[in-house]
Amino acid sequence: MFQSRWLPSLVGLRVFGVVGIQISLPFCMASSFCTVFSADAKFFIMSTPETFPEVSPFLIHKLILSTIGKVKIVKKPKPGDLLIEVSNPSQAATLSKLTTLGSLKVNNSVHKNLNFSRGVISERGLKKHTESELVQELSNQKVCAARRIQIKRDGKLIPTQHVVLTFSTPELPKLIKASYLSCPLKPYIPNQARCFKCQKFGHRQQTCRGASTICAKFSVAGHVSS
């Protein structure tokens, strides 16, 4: 029997290991994010045609302080971009309307991933509700997407009581209230990509740059485990 105590290690795109059961989430990671960003957005990407490495970081820092105020974090994820975490909604509103920083033309957009959080609820009382119904009823608690976990048994997909909820806020709540039901939330932890050629994590076999195939059983190059 599939039990909720296994959920933190099993939640993912597709997991094997429970006898006779295949567990899957029928959606890709990117498609399940909300398309509408709330006022809780804290992470922004600032980009400019004139790459930031060509401008003094001290000058950029002073311009951000004078224009937006003291923010929590400023990082450079890639050339030409700055990742900014604001401290309050007022800074977020100012940053979203900002078109120039000193003499630099800038474009600011909300980060597509960091402004969301995901958690899993396990409640039998909600098993008969559709995903759209859950989103509608829980929207006042910042729920903007829901996907029910399914198990595959004897070639058939069977819905479970476990639902992955996406929140339009970076902070994951400890629980949600479904009418009179209190549903604790567990952080959603997707499975890390694994390459079955070099047996390393972080990429898949199709994009592996390894020269030879590594045995998954003995970690030796030159033969494949059977």
UniProtKB/TrEMBL annotation:
TM regions (residue ranges):
15-37
Q: Does the keyword Metal-binding apply?
A: yes
Q: Which GO terms describe its molecular function?
A: nucleic acid binding; zinc ion binding
| UniProt keywords, alphabetically | Membrane, Metal-binding, Transmembrane, Transmembrane helix, Zinc, Zinc-finger
Report the residue ranges that make up the CCHC-type domain in this protein: 194-209
Electron transport as a keyword?
no
In Swiss-Prot or TrEMBL terms, this protein is called CCHC-type domain-containing protein
Q: Supply the source organism for this entry.
A: Araneus ventricosus (Orbweaver spider)
